[in-house]
Each structure stands twice: as C-alpha cells, then as structure tokens.
Amino acid sequence: MIRRSSAGRFQHSGISRRSLMQGAGGLSLATYLGTRATGTGAATLVQATPTTDISGTSLSILQWSHFVPSFDEWFPTFLQEWGDANGVTVQVDMINTADVPATFAGEISAGSGHDIVEHIASLPQYENSVLDMTDLVAEATARHGEQLPMAKANSFNPTTNKYYGFCHGYAPDPANYRKSLWETVGLDTGPTTFDELLEGGTQIWNEQGVQMGIGMSQEIDSQMAAQAMMWAFGAGIQDENENVTINSPETIEAVNYMKTLFESAMTPEVFGWNAASNNQLLVAGQASYILNSISAYRTAQEQQPDVAADIFLSLPLEGPAGPDRALAHGHAVFTAMIPTYAENPDTAMEFLLHLTANYQAAVDNSKFYNFPAFPDTFPGLTDDGGPLDNDPYGSEPPDKLATLKTANDWTVNLGWPGPANAMIGECFNTFVLSDMMAKAARGDMSPEDAVAEAETTLNAIAENWRAEGLMGGGQ
Amino acid sequence: MSATTTRDERYLMDRDRVLGPLFLLPAVVYILALVGLPLVLAVLYAFSDVTVADPRISGRDDFVGFDNFRAIWSDNVFRKALRNTVVFTLISQVIVLLLANILAMVLSADFHGKRLVRFLVLLPWTTPVALGVLGWFWMLDSVYSPIDWMMREVGLLGPDTPFGPARNMYWLGTTHLAQGAVILVHVWRTLPLATVILLAGLTAIPQDIRDAADIDGAGFWRQLFYIRLPLLLPIMAVALLFAIIFAFTDLTIALVLTRGGPVNDTQVLASWAYFKGIQGGNLAQGAAIALFLLPVLVAIAIAMLRLARRAGEETA
After folding, report:
1. Contact status of A438 with chain B (Cβ, < 8 Å)
2. Sign for the pseudo-dihedral over CA of B6, B12, B16, B17
3. Residues A260 and A303 occupy one common structural domain
4. Global ipTM
C-alpha cells in the first residue's frame, strides 16, 4: 500500500518497488498484447494505486491535440476507465497545440481552469503559477526508475530548485529523407553529415528539382532546426550556467552554412511556413529531406502510401564539432503542469502517476511517436528485435524505425547545455533563432550582424527573467 | 407641466428620466465590463512588471514607469510591426474606400441579379474571420495553392514562363507577396461593411436633389463630385473610422495567415503583442505593445467623428 506522508507527498509501505514493477510490467505486457489485438482504443490494464483517497473528486485536463490521431482516440477511454475505477469524474479538452499557451494564460489570469495543462514544450515562463512537482517526480522515479536527464532539464529550474512540470515523455526528432532521391547521389542511407546534406541536397535540387525542407520561419520546427544546426557546429544559445553565448564564431559558421544551404537547395517557401508545412511538403512528395518526428511519416502512410514507402529516418547530422554534438531536441516534450488554482491537485498527480505506469500503452497508441521519459515503463522498447525493429504499423521494411533505438542518447533539452529556462521559452516563441538564420539567408544582414542582433535580443530577454528570479547566469 | 404629461408620467416606467437611463444601462454595463475594465487593466499592465505567470499587481513595487515602453522601442521587431501596422492600414483603407464607392454605386443601380450580387458582396463579412483567413491561407499555400495551379495551367508559372521557372509563387514566403496578401485579405474582409454603409448613404440622398441635378444637365462626374461625394462624406467618415480601427487592431489576419513572417515582415502590433505577451510570457511588454497606438486611435476616432458631425450639420 502507498500512503500519504506528512513529510513528503508520497510514502511507500507494504508493496516493494520490485514487486510493483513486476506487477506493472506483467500487466503492461498484457496491455501491449491486448492493444496489438484490438488496434487503438484498448485502455489501461495497470491501475496505479492511489496514495490518497481521491474518490468523489474530479479531474479536468487541457492538452494538445495529438499529431497521431489514434492517440486522441485512446486517451479519453484510458482516462475514463481510470476515473471509473477510482470514483473520479474526468474531463479532457484537446485543443491545437499552438493555442495551449494562450488558453493557459487566460486561465491563470482568471484564476480558475483545468487541473492539468499539458503542452508539447516546456513553459518555464509559467513557473510562478504552477505547483512544484518535485514529490511527484521522486515518486515516479521510485516506482519506475530514473527519469531521462533530458526530461528533467526540460521541466526543472535549477535556479529556483523547482520542477515546474512533469515530463512523462517526448517525441524523438530524427530526419525524414526520400531514399530513392538520395540513392541517385550515392547516399543510400541518407546524409550523415552536414557536408553530405549540402552536397547531395544541391545535386538533387539541380538534377531532379526536388528541394529540401528545413524551415526558417515563425514557427517551432524552425527554431528546433536552427538550434540543432548550431549544436553540430559547436555553438549554443547559452552555457550550462545560463549565460548567453550565441555570439560565437561557431554560430556564425552555422548561419553561413544555412545561407549556403538555402541558396543551393531550398526555395523561399521555407520563410513562410507554419509547423505543419514541412510535413505537407514531404507528404506531397516534394521534399528530399526534412527534420521532423515520425508524425510526418505516419501521415504519409495514411495519405500517400507510395511516398511513405520511400521515406526513411536518419540520425541527427554530424557537423564540424564532431559526433558528440550531433544532437536533436525532443520534437515534442510532453510536459504536464498543475496550476496553483487547480481544485484537485492530488487527483491530478495520481493520474499522472497512472499515466506513467501505463506509458507502454501511450507509446503504442501513438504509433511510437511518444517515447517514455521513464524508460523502464516500456521494457525492451529500444532493444534489438524489439518493436522498433518490427514496426507493427505497417512499415516496410519493418525495421524502418530502428533509427530511433538510440534516440535517448542523442536527444537533449531545449536550451542545452543549459536548462530549458524562461529565456529559452521566450526565445522560441518570438522566433529569435529562425529570424537570425533567415536574415542571413535572404541577404538582409551579414551572418555576423544577424548573430549580433540575436545576442542583443536574447540578453534583453534574459535580463527580464533574471529580474523575475526565474533564471541564473549573468554573472 | 400639462395635465396630460402628469397623467402619462404617473407611473415610474412612464418617466423619460427613468426609462432612458434604464434602457441604456445594459449597454453601459457591457461596455464597462468588457471594454473599460480590460482597457484599464491593460494600462496598468503596461506600466508594471507582470508576467503571464504572475499577473497580479500587489503594490507600488510592481510599477516600473515607462521601462516597458523604452524596452519595446529599442526592439527592431516592434518598430517593424509599428511601420507595418500603419502601412497596411493606410494602403488597405485607400483601396477599400475606392472599391466601396464603386461597388455602392453599382449596387444602387437597378439590374438583374442585384440581390444575388449584394449577397455575394456581403458574404466575406458574414464569414467568421478566422475561417475566412484560413481559406486564404490554403489559397496561398506554398504547395497546394489553387492560384498557382491556375497560373501553371495558363502558362504563367513554371519553367520558361513569365513568373517561372519556379512552379509556385511562394506567396507567404517572399516579403512583398506576403505583405500584399495581408493587405488583400484586409480589403476582402472590410470591403463589404464599407460598401453597405456607403450604400445606405447613397440610398438616403433625396431623390429630388438627383432629379434637380438631372434637369440642370449635370453629368455623371459632376453629380459624383458635387452631389454624391459631399453628401456621402459624413457616412464615409464613419465607414472609414470603423475600417481603420478594424485594420489597426486586427490580430487574426497576421496570426493565421503568416504568423508575422517572413522574418517579421508582416508582423503588426496586435500579433507582436500576442507573441511577446502571451506566447513569450512577457505580459507587461505585450500590454505596452498593444497600447502603443491607443492615443493615436483615440485621436483618429475623435477627429473622424467631429468631421462626420460637421459635415452632417453642413449638409443639413
């Protein structure tokens, strides 16, 4: 039995972690097999025992509408079954992910709203209005093993020593490339370095008229692409201590590279995209290479099977800084927050523990878009011969997702090597990185000036958040 | 006071001094609660250090004077958004004014299918703005644009064509085309309202004035410049006032169509306030951006209303 503790939020007694895990593992396997048999919609078989009496309470959740529709078919059933089992009245509202921050802001202003708000990125700028999740993370760690460091850095503020969110999963961000196009330039498994990307992509564009799709526009994917490129060139927005370090020769080199890449293999459409545009280009069969999660591939499987058969995944590209900095963000980082005005915070935390315990079902119903932040919740996910080597959702060849087996190794948090702080949040939401890249690519500014301008902007943003006490650095 | 009046005002609800304010009360409450209160709140936010996570103003320490205005003024994106807001508004309203006058005159004439044409002209105004803009977004999509498809079909786009060799125009990816698209959607959106207002004005011009002008031998242009336009001036000012305020404060078009891109070239104050204040979390600076043009808008509104009143008095 697990009971409420006066010192900490959760206290164990009776059932050991091992026995709990064994039980959960067995039931998870049953869930997995059951889901295999029925397709989407099969819900929970693991009931995470509540640590406190939540019967008679209610739980309302605001979360993003998933990019893989089968997840949104499964989740309400999963939630309802948990509610029925625990006597909790449940409700989930799913909205466009771009609308989550604004809706959350409105609820904070009103001082009332949902008990859980989940977004696909860190929202550290909301820290003062959410509960500290330290006890919840500790409890989940006790039950399910260590949380990925990337997940912690995406939800923990070292300056205030507070978990402002509970990160239960993420979506890896590999590259999606068209195999038949890259075979013609002698790169059968797609480009592995930025040099190969430029060389091969240029040849494909010149000879076959198919462009590359790396955005430089006012949306989130473009920010992620820009930062991944900066990492590969040895640059970063900030250091480990949250000091702004963007103005460096490495960043200028990355911006120069992007300018050359645009001039050689892309069209002006990359300046006017929204977050779905690179997916659409790939699914339409008009892109040789994009940076995105597997949702683009899954969409193609539904809408353009011929194109999907030609889409393959590859690892983050190696740049001048070497293989250790061939990194990517979590394309989506599933971060649940409990606002200070939540009427049922205990119920909310219990549900998050329950979701974590059943993450294998979440991964499966997202068609392997979601990856667990607590890897032990899906034993064997990344093993050889596991589901990524034999995609149950119709990939041909079946091991098409095998690239993702190492995703935990090359996925880092927003703002790495520092934490995902409020400056990073504002930087991503006001498009500082994509603007820097685009200004140089279009010739509006020299790469040096574009980087210097980004530094000025970031310093002003950082100063603001330091004054709020929400980020460190600036020494 | 006459005996009749006394009899009429015997009951409380019969008295003008009671009934008038009573009828006005819902409107006053509505305006105070949904316009006045948020406006006051926005002004307070603009001079404070509130963030999206901590929107409370708990004391004098939370006020920072003009710091937010100084900060936003030093931001290049803000200055670009300010310039875009003014330029998009002016250009779109000149176009709206011209087209609305033409359309109103056409629609005031008698012809077959007039009702259908009126319905079609009004349609953009009845469509929810977000839905309409979403339609334009797809019309101008970089891959699936039907406009591009038509241009390719008639040989205007593609290799060896006037707008080639590209197969797409990339409407929302190039600066001038994206800015043109924003102006176009503004015009598409506000033209129906301006047309209907002017149509009402034209219909209100007394027939005897027009008959007298005909008898005196005044041609179309003379009637237009000496009769119709002067008589329409008050109502034109009202139409223009509405359209300017709609254009100045519009968030949806920039947000849905371009998200301010490419590189903030279509960013306007309303969208930048949203990105900075809500998405970015800096509520105080967002409020400062949103309020920046408030004094200008108030001045425009007062000037236009005075103009309308003066012109109305002269006409009378």
Report:
1. yes
2. positive
3. yes
4. 0.82
